Amino acid sequence: DARSGKSSLLFQFAYNRARDLTRGRTMFLCDRGKMFSSPPCRFARPASADADEPAHYHRDTQVLRRIDVKYVAGHDELLRFLANIHTSLAPIHTVVVDDLDLLC
Q1: How many CB atoms lie within 10 A of CB 63?
Q2: Which of 16, 35, 61, 91 measures 20 to 30 Å from 24, CA to CA?
Q3: CA-based radius of gyration for the chain
Q4: How far is CA 19 from the centre of its chain?
């Protein structure tokens, strides 16, 4: 189902990994068309008294900057990317692939 929320859950996982592991990058691999036609829901933040504070916004922005979104168009492009991931300049600690079943 296109509206199952799977992409949102996967992006939330990528966000949590980027938040918890401050060294290295988190990669979120997905199909460009799907991401633009049905973007993930806004990620959840823990409720707190300072949720509207600029500092909280700044922390979210810093976490999002540690997530690299890579668009892959199919099986061959996904394999090429994964085969060359070791050449990345920044260490990558997590790779999340949205719709792996459709890409393979």
Answers
A1: 19
A2: 35
A3: 15
A4: 12
